[in-house]
Amino acid sequence: MKNRHSARAHRQLVPTDARSAEVSGAFALQVITEGSAQRAGPSFPVEHAVPLWIKRRVLLLNVTYEPLTALPARRAVVLMTCGKADTVHEDPQAPVVHSEQWSVQVPSVIRLRNYVRVPYRARIPMTRAALMHRDRFRCAYCGAKAETVDHVVPRSRGGEHSWENCVACCAPCNHRKADKLLSELGWTLRAALVPPSGPHWRLLASTKDLHPSWMPYLGEGAA
PANTHER family under this entry (predicted)? Predict the structure, then answer.
């Protein structure tokens, strides 16, 4: 019993990406940056560089160049190692990932080799990020730089939290409007409030930071 408990105590779980790489025949990966390549050695393993790039995201495109999602860089590299995706845009500032027989610089955009069918959903979920993109980061009332989200019909007066009732708003306008209606202030909206449509809007709704090389694939909403 003691030996069995000891074995359980020292058991380590294998990361999902590592298991999938082993099954597919992919090579073990390491990361090298300019700084870590010089310091790598017995006292500074290459793996210490991982936290510096693990939060990097890579845009994944369907074979039709339709944007699908923003992947963690490690997952993107695994797809490329397994021969399931190819680099579309390289990132000169990204680190180099390599194995004994293969190496690649972490890209900013990759494209699947085979088509993936995406379930159709008519309604795009409204998030703060997507709303800001829809209104181009400008106040719906005065056109200044938007910093907050405002309900056109205040929630205290029955307004809904929806695409048709929410706008990007600057702090001064938000403060002045408070819980008043536009008719009470004599204000008008700069544009009609409509829900956005298109596959790229799902990515805009869930991704905060967008790499410049992603823009051609994300439509006007990302501009």
Answer: OS07G0170200 PROTEIN, SLL1193 PROTEIN
